[in-house]
Structure formats: structure tokens, C-alpha cells
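Course assignment 3, question 2. Fill in each field.
Student: A.L.
Task: Predict the tertiary structure for the chain below.
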Amino acid sequence: MRQTAFERITLDCLSLDGVTGLVSDRCARPTAPPPADYCLTVTGGNPLLLRALLEEHSEADAPSAPRPAEPSALHSPPQAAPPRPVVGGRFYQSVLACLSRTETAIRQTAGALAVLGGAARADLLPQLLGASPASVTRGLRALEATGLTTSGRFRHPVAEAAALDALDPSRRAHLHRRAAALQHHDGAAPRDVARHLLAARHAAGPWAVSVLRDAAEQSLAQDDVASAVSCLELAYGACVRERERPEIRIRLAAAFGRTNIAVAEEHLADLVATLREGELTGHQTALLVPLLVNHGRLGEAREAMDRLNAADDARGLCADGGFPMAAPWPSTAHLAARRDPAARRDPGTRRDPADKPFLPRQSGAPQPRPEDGRGQQPTAALWALPGNGTSEAAAHAAEQVLRSSPLTDSTLVLLVNAVRILARTGRYDTADIWCHRLLGEATRRRCPGWQAHLLAVRAELSLCRGLLADAKECAQRALTHVPGHSRSVFAGGPLACQVLACTAMGRYDEATQLLSHPVPEALFHSVYGLGYLRARGHFHLAMNRLPAAVRDFLTAGRVAREWGLDHPVLLPWRTDAAEAFLRLGETKRADQLLTEQLVSPHSGNPYVRGTALRLRAQTAAPAERLRLLSEAVSDLQSSGDRLALARALADLGAAYHSRNEPVRASATVRRAWQLAKECGAQALCDSILPSRGTKDRGPDGRAAATEALLSESEMRVATLAAGGNTNREIAGRLCVTVSTVEQHLTRVYRKLNITRRRELPTRLRHLADQAN
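Answer field:
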């Protein structure tokens, strides 16, 4: 090539016939040749590119072992899928080689064309390159002659990627910055401009930040959350206007709510800190409030609302003195108004001594203000029971919302709570249909954060129906959609559901392990903290830690009242606490709570009424007890909660025993045990029929070691005592005297080598594990 007689001859690219011949020659069996017309489209007939494409196809399609030919293959040429070149493959390397042999101006033209991509226009290329139109035209013709481009576009994305990679990184970033400015000036769509800003990792100037924010909104509208997050993160880092940065972070938190709830909560925590430092404007605070409400952080939302009402620039941001998102339910528009000061609890009202502060207070946060139920915090309306307080009105409002609201960032929690209300009011089938529908949409739209919310409410739905294993599984699946859930406030909801399920299933070690996981302090200032406190209280109840159970139940009730969320349909803390008080022997306090529950506006709910009647029956006279339990069974049967029904049936069976009606007692107890068994509530099974529950755990009497140690009657007494029942309760359930129970327990303590009642659960589980 260096000889003086050397002369360069330019050859045209291969025609379709030439490509067909080369494909046939180079692709022998067993590798089927790819379609020649496709190869011509990708390579433009360039022999160098064509050979590389065929080699890459042969390597990808080569069989690992000889395969017998099918009968049809003996009579017709085999068909092969079009080759799919990849970045870094032989075709990609050949494009790089082809570009390296061209002039610098042609390479630069190829790079600029790749930077502009599908938006390339003849008038933009000269401006981007800073070259004359004639020079750019020559470069485009040269690229087309090599077969890399056609009509001003690269023939294949891999060729475009190679042209980009052929550029020096600093040159590539420079071209992207210029392309962004040119396209923005030209009125291109924000997403097209943002693509260049992201590629350059540079966004200088307010216009760039504005473009990135607009592009993020467009990406979210198209469910491209990753692009939206990238745009917002770049905008946040590039923004020099301190007053604008919190708004960008609010949008970041909302975007992460779709994909990573824990990260969204980290942004919210920082924003609340900024709020307390007085760095948020009224407008920014107005944007923050609904986000805090959606994440269930009602304590912080109320604090933000107070600051918003006091802000100088808050006028016009709040309609009627409340927050625009405060009343999402169709029938609760009146709740958006400011609370009437007269609705607060009278300062002279005596507090229950046990109703003492327990939640850790956040530094800088105002102390909660008590509510008496007549007023409701505007920020809590989203989590409240809609309608006039009846289950029918609440269910109607929930269905109305589900039928009329699309699934979006701002309606997610509204829809989830609508499903929750359908479940808590006994509309299980309807709730399941809507939950399945919404979960399918969240899955299709690739929003794991949304999936976590919907799986969590499905777990609650299963728990309400007494499907303990399903509830535990759904709660665990919800947590798998929350990376880093150990630091997440939201995770307290599914975690509470797991604890309740494990406790009811008698898996106390597993429940202990779940409760040993550290949780963020902010959990106890959110609605998820209410459920967590209740679940922990029930675990304490099962472990016979009655004062701790009372403390958790009363704390949950106090916070619910302060937030205006004192609805037994959503949080039956009164019956929870009453059960603990009954086991402590404090019947007067238990009766007071049960009376409050039964005279409340929500007492018409079958679950609420049935549970309260079952507990009230424990202190009633024998005849009255039978009537109350019969009504409780009727109510709980219509509620659909099979686990609660099993508990009521067990108590009814014991009542029949005490009235010397063995036939009815036996049938009722068997029904209760079967229901508990179907629910997977082993702890309740053991409580109802201790010997039968133990034997049923495995075939061939695998509990023989325990039974050999304890007699059947001793085993029954020990199991009931381990479940937290008092000696009097055990005597009533087994139809024996209290003295007999005491004698049995004395022998049990001696045989198990224990001295305290609280050692019974651990010792019995240890023996059962040895037997199994």
C-alpha cells in the first residue's frame, strides 16, 4: 500500500444476490443460514460486517451436540431466526474496526449521529459538530457507503453503540451536553433532552433542572420509574436554588414509593428534619403533607400541618382551613374542616392510670393532642373509617372509591385502605377480587412498592378470615418487595401480621424472633405502629405477660384516639385490653372497656359485637353466660372470622359443660376444635382439647414422651395454664374444682422440674420437640 504504483479502488457493497451467496457459502449445516434480506438490512452489504454477523450467528446457534434431523428438514431448507448481534460481539468489533479505518471527520460524524440517535436531523449535525454542512454531508455519504447507515440513521443499535464507544469519553460527554442544549432550544420533548443530560451526567443551568423534572414526570406517567429517579437525582445534585431542592426531593420520595419504600422513607425523614429547621416554604410543606399521610406517618403529618397553618405563605394552600387531601372518602368531606376546639377532651377529665405515655417522643415534635372521637385530624381521614360509622356505609364508600379511582401514586393508599375496610367489614370475597385486580396491575406496571402494599393488605385479609398460614406467607412476600425492610416504617405492618399469625399458630419461638428484629423509632409515630403494638400485645398475652400486654393495647388505643382513628373495626384495642384485664382478675376495668365497645356507634359490626359479648360472658352468671355466648357465636359466624368463631364456640362448649349438658358440649367443642385446626391455630387447638391437640401433631403418637411424663388430665391442665388461663378459668373449662386444678399443677411442676408457672410454655414445647 506504500508503493508509488498503489491505487485505492472503492468497491460497492454486496447486492442481495451477493449477500445470499455469501450467506449460503459460510453457513453450512447443522447451522441454518439466517435470512439474507435481514443480513443485508443490518450490514448494508459490507462484506466485513456481513462475515462478522454470520460468525456471531454461527457461534450463538451452534448445537452443543449433534441432533437428528426431523423428517421435514430432509425435504426443505432449515429456517433460522435472524442473528442478534450484541454489544461486544464480533459484529460490534467489526464496526469499531471499520470506523477506525475512516478519516477523523467521518468518525466524528458517526459519533455525533449516534449521540443524536433517532432525533438526528441534517440541520442539527453541523451545529453539534461545529462543522460546515458540506463537511457533514460528505461524512454522512461516506458512512452510508460503508453500509453502517441508511437515510441518516444507523442500520442497527449495536452499530450505533459502537460509534458512541469509538468516541473519547470527554468528547462524548461534550457532544451530549451540546445536543441537550440544541434540542431544548429546538423545542424537543423533555425526555429526549434529558437523555443527553443523563448521558453527560451534567445539568448546568436552571433550564436543565427544569427539563429533568419535566422528564421525570413524563417517565412516571409511562411507568418508567428508573428513568424518573435518574432524572430527579441529577436535578437534585445540579440544582443551586436551595428553595427548589426540597421539592425535587419530595418528588424523589414519591417516585421511590413505587420501587423501594425504605429509600422513600429515608427521603421523608430528611425532609421532616428540614421542616423542623424551618427550611421549607408553605408550598413545599403542602406538598410534603400528603406524602407523609400516604406513608402512614400521621404524627409527622400533623406536625407539618400545624406548621403549614402557621406559615406566612400558607394562605390559599389550604381550603377551608384543612388540607386538600384530607377527605378522600366520598362521605367524609366534612372532616377536612379544622377541628372544633370544643371537641377536645376537657383538661379536667381524669386519665386512666394505666393509660400512660409509652411511645418515644420525637425530638422537636409537638406533643399529641387528645381526641374524644367527635373530631378527627384532617391528616388522618385517609386512614379512618368512612361513612356515618356503620359497616354498611363504610363498605359502600370503599367500593365507590375502588370503582372510581385509578391506581396512581396519590390513590394507592386510598385504594389499599378501601380493600382493608371491605375486609374488616366482612366483605371478604369483594375485597379479595379488588386486591387481586390491583395487585395484577401493580405487577404489570413493575412497581414492587405498590405490590408490597397490596400483599400486606392481602395478608390482613387472610388474617381476618382465619387463614393463618396464608396470612404469614403474604406478609413475608410483602417484605420481599421492600429491600432494606429492617429500617422501614411500612415493614411494621407485614411484620405485625406475621407475629399475629405465628402467635395464633402456636409458633412462639418464631414470633419471638420476629419481635426481636430492631424497628425504627418512627414506626411508633405511624399507623403501622398501632398494628405492631397490637400484635406484640397478643404475643405478650400468649406468653402470660399480662401487664406488658395491657400496656401495648392501651398505648395503641391512646394513640388511635389522639389521631381520631378510634374505630374498633380497624383497631379493636378495647376488647384486646379487656381480655388481658380479665386474665389479671381486674373484671371492673374489663367490664368498663367492654361497655364502651358495645355502646359505640360501631357496635353493630358482627365481629366487634361478637368479640365483646364473648369476653363479657366470662364474668356473667351461668344462665346469662350461655345467652351471651350464643349471641357471640351467631355474630362471629356472620362476620366470617373463623378463628374468632372457634374461640367463641370453645367458650360455649365449656358453658354447656358447666350446665351439665354433655351432648351439646361435646358437639360444640368438637366443632370449635375442627375450626381451629382448619385455621392452623394449634395454640387454640391445644387449649380446647389439650390431649387431642397434642396427639394430632403427628402419626403414631409422636407425643408419647410428653404423655408418658404427664397423665392426660395433667396434660390438659398444664396446657391451659401455659396458655395463660387462671386456675378458676381452667376449672370452669374442664368442669372440675379449683382445688383439683391446683393439685394437678403441683404434680406437673414436680414432674417437669419447674417452680414457676411462666416456665410451663417453654418446658412443654421442649418436651414436644423431643417427642417429635
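Instructor remarks: The first strand starts at residue 149 and ends at 150. The chain has a mean pLDDT of 83.
Grade: pending
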